[in-house]
Design goal:
The complex is a heterodimer of chains A (about 475) and B (about 750).
Chain A (H helix, E strand, L loop, with lengths): L5 E6 L2 E6 H5 L6 H6 L23 E4 L3 H13 L10 H11 L2 H8 L9 E7 L8 E4 L5 E5 L2 E5 L16 E8 L2 E6 L7 H4 L9 E6 L5 E5 L1 E3 L2 E3 L1 E8 L5 E8 L4 E7 L5 E6 L11 E5 L4 E6 L8 E6 L4 E7 L1 H5 L8 E6 L5 E6 L4 E5 L5 E2 L4 E3 L20 E5 L2 E6 L2 E6 L4 E7 L6 E7 L2 E6 L4 E6 L7
Parallel strand pairs in A: 1-3, 21-25
Antiparallel strand pairs in A: 1-2, 4-33, 5-6, 6-7, 8-9, 9-10, 10-11, 12-13, 14-15, 15-16, 16-17, 18-19, 19-20, 20-21, 22-23, 23-24, 24-26, 27-28, 28-29, 29-30, 31-32, 32-33
Helix pairs in contact in A: 3-4, 4-5
Chain B lengths: L4 H17 L3 H19 L8 H20 L6 H10 L1 H23 L4 H23 L1 H5 L1 H5 L4 H14 L2 H19 L6 H13 L2 H30 L2 H22 L4 H14 L3 H5 L6 H6 L3 H11 L5 H22 L7 H21 L5 H15 L5 H16 L5 H17 L3 H17 L6 H15 L1 H32 L27 H17 L13 E7 L5 E7 H9 L5 E3 H8 L3 H12 L7 E4 L10 E4 L9 E3 L10 H30 L1 E3 H12 L7 H13 L3 E3 L6 E4 L2
Parallel strand pairs in B: 2-6
Antiparallel strand pairs in B: 1-2, 3-5, 4-5, 7-9, 8-9
Classes of the chains: A mainly beta (about 475), B mainly alpha (about 750).
Chain lengths: ~475, ~750
């Protein structure tokens, strides 16, 4: 723009003056970017230019919108940080940001980059559903979903609830965000419900696995498992997808032979492979799948209480073999007094070890570079004494612990709190706890937020890192 | 209670009414009219009369209605359905308006004549893009809200799809566009200059419309046309060009195509078009090219055509099986020429020349591989295996290589720098690595080294040691321990002699000077031979030395190896001519006899000296029959020595030199019987090694069948030689006899180790 790069806006009667440089921060893909684009400001022979020069030749544009929100957004473009005055409702600001095409800017400035040691409770969102929640999953854009019985409740990053998703109202076992707008749901096959068998739908008894639009809640694609070229009904357990974004994995349990891990092509949604479970490896019962980029292998963990013995294995799909495995089958049988049961597992980000946790909240590590074997091999860290364990009141329900890793930190949920471990030795550095809401049954990290689903009141907490301090 | 109904009813009505007022279909209609007008103005290049803010705002309001409908879509009622129809008007209207405009544009493109066609298409595409951007600006809000939730195509993509369907896929344009593009490319291939900028814009347009459009509507036909073009062209070239020229042309075409891709095609096409050229120009003619008469691979190798070879390698590497074809042809050529080289009887006459030829051949091909084949490991391996193959075809190779070293260390290296020596020795080691019978080489090397050391003819001690070190790193300590022992002996002999003369100087007086090499038995390749009768002068000194030596070292035994020594003697001939003669010990003994007699028969000499007959004959031959060195005269005159000959002192002997070196007539190369003997000794030496290997293996395995033993023994010993399975079998039998092993009582093929 001419005139020293200055621009004047009259927004709902209030005049703002700024520079084209500031407005360039909005990007061409925004309303302000388009407004100033040269194609809309061509000098015309027939008519005078739309913004008539007033006062020193600075062009003025009139925008018929809320001035106080515009002030906040202009400030965001100027400084890159978001400051919302207390009297301004957030929803109003979001609506205006959407009008100007600046919603992504607002979201990016709303909270800082994830750091487990600087988390603050940002919101507690109460749910309406009865009973226990199954899982909570963070979306890459800061939203989340909560699997609850036969439905998945989807929230956008503003924590507005969208249309719930359901797969024939079957019990949902796991959910995963393929991307910000696509949600995978794994559900239990409904045996008593033989609607599909009659109308030639490939013996589809409901349940299984499908992809939904996280925005509209529509069913996009139903993933199939074929055995001997015939589609079979199945129960999908845990979900995962690989880092390259080529494949989707799910643990599957069919009626006959379809026990194992299914692989689908992410682009076409067609079944690409099926890893039938070898004897002794309860792949179909797995409740945790995790893709390991470095090893190009899938970690499968079948854990108590879904299976009696804990089995952790690495599947190599190119070699079609179990590349590494560990099991506590013999340890559980031998009465050595070692009654530590592995209740959850997560592969560490370096891909060299698997972290496990037992019922006493002890963390242990399995070295993936050494042979797995049975029983031994777990390097337990006796740090449970460090923990200030909340003494459970009689009648209060406890939950199985969960593990997660993010940005080199290790997270584990224990009853009503999430512990954060940092550094190469994974020392306890922070504890996230909310006084009410009961035990945490699941938590998830994504989109620079941590979501913790509480058991008792069906509330989920949103933890986020505040923007960095000014100095 | 009767009035309870109406208020509730009214409440409900008010709620519903509020809701529906916003969804006025007429409002939607009106707004759409405004937007439609704007879209037309944009396409008419008349946008300056439009206010973006107003358009954006009016579209925003319409969109709120739309979006609301979608969000509440699951509550669809009949009433909402009607509104929904109006609500969709915006999106559908946009689609219809753009379609209509594009049909207009399509007509004007179709009307463009000849060369202007592409330019018109490109200009209209630019216009459309710009218009599309502006339309998208207005409808930005719809793109963000309505489109994702209703699964519509975003505005920009919609514009591209419509362009694709109504312009690119319009029957009047579709084939014309393709033909024009292919024609231009063909003309460029034939050497014409075309407008590459325009081509780039058009192919970029096709890519913008989606990779599928580019691939289906341009790339596939392009590749097909290219394949037939290059198939025809290569057919023509192969008939009239030699291999080098053909490859040059192929390389140029390949580079042209890559350049074409970088200038105006999508980068993804590079691999595809190059693979077409590779297939048509190289893979299809691969064998013909390699075997082309007078210019194929073999001729290139012979003539060291590095450039052509490099090109061939670079091109063939691109096609499947290309390099393996090259490698196979090279290997068979190397084996053939190598085989001719090592079996050529002419070559066998001069061992030094023979080895030099091998080294030259190796250097030549090493250079080809490093210059033209980019040091490709697989080619190096092929070269090595070829050499290994043909060097071992000739069982005299170990001897010849040792002789070559002997030649180099004896005199060849005079004036050569240390680095040169290293280079030559390294090359020899390379040949040594190819040898299967390394123990034979060791045998010969020991003999040749002994000769060099004892005659004091080694040029450089450092070079000798450096060779030993190389052999040691290659074959281990065991291989060279005896060779090193020889060096130690030389050193201690020197010290002993110094000490002897220092202590016994007064005793010795003026007698002949004695220089004794004390050789450890076993380290040296000596054959025990009875000492000859030494002249009394010498014998005195020898006895003194014996007394001294046994006095200082108790418990040792000294035997004189008179067959290996040398002597310098002074002689006066007729006319008073004095010469110093450098002769062997045997020759000295013979010549000393002539101090007291002028003529002696063969029998008399044999009796007086007791030199073994074969040695004596050689010794006399070199004294009497070699021209210029004939200090003795023989009667009758003939080349050979017979037992009836008589020898006289030749006082007519003359020489320009004061020092005359009278060599012993020896074949430098081994004679046939000697060769047999060496071979036999080698075979003898192998026996204990094979037995040791068998025992080592059986000790750890306890029970093993015959074939496994043979393969294990071969594996263990192949660093030194390749044992013959028949010999291994004999050794096993011998071990059974000596009760180291036994045959299994049930399975006769199995052997058991007896501890």
């Amino acid at each position: 723009m001419a005139c020293g790069g200055r621009v004047r806006f009259n927004v709902g009667g209030q005049v703002f003056e700024t520079t084209t440089t500031t407005l360039a921060n909005a990007g061409r893909d925004s309303m302000l970017g388009a407004l100033l684009d040269s194609s809309w400001n061509l000098p015309s022979s027939s008519s005078p230019p739309p913004p008539p020069p007033q006062g020193g030749g600075v062009p003025e544009y009139f925008i018929d919108r809320n001035p106080s929100c515009f002030a906040v957004l202009l400030d965001l473009l100027r400084t890159g940080s978001l400051h919302v005055p207390p009297h301004l409702p957030e929803k109003l600001l979001y609506r205006e940001a959407l009008y100007y095409g600046l919603l992504d800017h607002v979201r990016a400035a709303r909270w800082g980059a994830f750091d487990g040691d600087r988390l603050r409770l940002a919101a507690s969102v109460p749910g309406r559903a009865p009973g226990d929640g199954t899982a909570i999953r963070a979306a890459p854009d800061g939203g989340c979903c909560v699997a609850h019985g036969g439905a998945v409740h989807v929230y956008n990053w503003m924590l507005d609830e969208r249309r719930p998703v359901s797969l024939d109202h079957s019990q949902v076992n796991d959910a995963a965000y393929l991307d910000a707008s696509t949600l995978l749901v794994a559900a239990r096959e409904r045996r008593h419900h033989h609607r599909g068998g009659a109308d030639g739908d490939g013996g589809d008894g409901g349940g299984g696995m499908a992809a939904f639009s996280a925005v509209s809640g529509e069913l996009l694609h139903r993933f199939r498992v074929a055995h001997a070229k015939q589609a079979k009904p199945f129960t999908a357990g845990a979900l995962a997808f690989d880092g390259g974004g080529a494949s989707v994995f799910a643990s599957c349990k069919g009626r006959l032979n379809e026990h194992g891990v299914g692989v689908w092509d992410r682009a076409t949604g067609e079944q690409a492979d099926f890893f039938y479970e070898p004897p002794g490896c309860a792949l179909g019962d797995a409740d945790k799948l995790q893709w390991l980029d470095g090893a190009s292998a899938l970690m499968v963990a079948s854990l108590f209480p879904r299976s009696d013995n804990c089995f952790i294995g690495l599947l190599d799909f190119r070699a079609k073999a179990v590349a590494w495995s560990w099991s506590d089958a013999t340890a559980a049988a031998s009465a050595l007094g070692d009654d530590k049961r592995v209740l959850h597992a997560v592969a560490m980000e370096d891909g060299r070890s698997v972290c496990v946790i037992n019922q006493y909240d002890d963390l242990g590590f399995l070295d993936l570079r050494k042979g797995g074997g049975t029983g031994g091999g777990v390097r337990w860290c006796s740090r449970s004494k460090l923990m200030s364990r909340k003494v459970l009141l009689p009648g209060e329900e406890s939950c199985y612990p969960r593990l997660a890793t993010h940005g080199g930190q290790l997270f584990s949920s224990m009853n009503d709190s999430v512990s954060v471990f940092s550094g190469p030795e994974f020392v306890l550095t922070s504890t996230l706890r909310r006084s009410h809401g009961g035990a945490i049954c699941d938590f998830s990290i994504g989109g620079d937020r941590l979501f913790a689903l509480h058991n008792e009141e069906n509330v989920f907490d949103v933890w986020e890192t505040p923007p960095p301090p000014i100095i | 209670m009767s009035g309870g109904g109406p208020p509730r009813k009214r409440n409900f009505k008010i709620e519903a009414f509020k809701h529906r007022v916003e969804l006025d279909p007429k409002y939607a209609e009106r707004t759409w009219k405004v937007l439609e007008h704007a879209i037309h103005e944009i396409y008419n290049h008349n946008a300056s009369g439009l206010s973006f803010e107003e358009l954006y705002r009016s579209h925003y309001v319409l969109n709120l209605l739309l979006h609301k409908l979608v969000k509440e879509g699951f509550l669809l009622s009949a009433y909402n359905m009607v509104l929904h129809k109006y609500g969709e008007k915006l999106y559908d209207g946009l689609q219809n308006t753009m379609t209509w405009r594009l049909k207009e544009i399509s007509k004007s493109i179709e009307a463009a004549q000849g060369g202007l066609f592409l330019e018109e298409l490109n200009a209209k595409w630019m216009d459309h893009n710009k218009a599309l951007q502006m339309i998208r600006d207005i409808l930005m809000y719809m793109d963000r809200t309505y489109v994702p939730t209703s699964h519509r195509t975003p505005v920009h993509e919609l514009g591209l799809n419509l362009w694709r369907d109504h312009i690119i896929h319009s029957p009047m344009i579709h084939s014309r566009l393709l033909d024009t593009l292919l024609d231009l490319i063909h003309r460029e291939r034939m050497g014409e200059v075309i407008n590459r900028g325009l081509m780039r814009s058009i192919t970029k347009m096709l890519m913008d419309l989606g990779p599928a459009v580019y691939q289906d509507d341009f790339e596939k036909p392009f590749l097909e046309v290219s394949a037939s073009f290059y198939s025809g062209e290569s057919q023509g070239y192969i008939e009239c060009c030699d291999c080098g020229n053909y490859l040059k042309k192929a390389e140029r075409r390949l580079n042209e195509e890559m350049e074409r891709v970088s200038h105006y095609l999508d980068a993804g096409s590079e691999a595809k078009i190059t693979s077409v050229v590779e297939k048509e120009m190289i893979a299809n003619h691969m064998h013909r090219l390699v075997h082309m008469e007078n210019s194929g691979l073999v001729n290139m190798l012979i003539d060291d055509k590095y450039e052509d070879l490099g090109r061939m390698y670079a091109l063939f590497r691109r096609v499947p099986d290309g390099l393996s074809t090259l490698r196979d042809v090279m290997t068979s050529y190397l084996r053939e020429t190598g085989k001719q080289l090592v079996t050529d009887p002419e070559r066998l006459k001069d061992p030094v020349e023979f080895v030099q030829c091998l080294l030259n051949e190796k250097d030549k091909h090493d250079k080809i591989i490093s210059v033209a084949f980019g040091n490709d490991k697989t080619f190096q391996n092929a070269l090595n295996s070829s050499f290994e193959y043909f060097i071992n075809l000739n069982n005299r190779s170990p001897e010849f290589i040792s002789l070559y070293v002997d030649d180099k260390l004896r005199k060849g290296l005079k004036g050569a720098t240390e680095e040169d020596v290293e280079v030559i020795l390294d090359k020899v080691m390379m040949l040594f690595r190819y040898l299967q019978e390394k123990d034979v080489f060791e045998k010969y090397y020991k003999q040749h080294l002994a000769k060099r050391l004892l005659s004091g003819k080694t040029v450089s001690d450092d070079a000798e040691r450096s060779m030993i070190v190389k052999l040691k790193t290659e074959c281990g300590y065991q291989f060279t321990s005896k060779l090193e022992g020889m060096f130690t002996d030389m050193k201690t002999s020197q010290d002993t002699m110094q000490d002897f003369y220092a202590k016994k100087a007064d005793e010795l007086g003026d007698g002949p000077t004695l220089d004794v090499h004390i050789l450890t038995t076993g380290s040296w390749p000596t054959q025990p031979s009875p000492p000859c009768n030494l002249p009394p002068e010498i014998l005195t000194v020898c006895e003194k030395f014996r007394a001294y030596y046994l006095g200082t070292h108790s418990g040792r035994r000294l035997t004189w190896q008179t067959n290996m020594g040398t002597a310098d003697i002074k002689a006066t001939f007729g006319k008073g001519q004095k010469h110093e003669l450098n002769v062997s010990t045997y020759q000295m003994c013979v010549l000393m006899l002539f101090n007291s007699a002028d003529g002696l028969t063969y029998k008399e000499i044999e009796q007086a000296t007791e030199i073994p007959a074969s040695d004596l004959k050689r010794c006399l031959q070199s004294l009497a029959c070699v021209k210029g060195k004939n200090v003795l005269r023989k009667e009758p005159m003939s080349k050979d020595i017979s037992e009836d000959d008589t020898f006289y002192f030749n006082d007519k002997f003359t020489s320009k030199l004061v020092k005359v070196k009278i060599g012993t007539v020896v074949a430098q190369k081994e004679s046939e019987p000697e060769k047999q003997e060496t071979r036999q000794r080698v075979e003898e030496d192998r026996k204990p090694q094979i037995e040791a290997a068998i025992v080592r293996i059986m000790k750890s395995r306890r029970v093993l069948d015959h074939n496994s033993i043979v393969s294990e023994v071969t594996k263990q010993l192949q660093a030194r030689f390749l044992p013959n399975p028949v010999v291994i079998k004999k050794r096993i039998e011998s071990l059974i006899e000596r009760e180291f092993l036994e045959r299994d009582k049930v399975d006769r093929k199995l052997y058991r180790y007896l501890a």
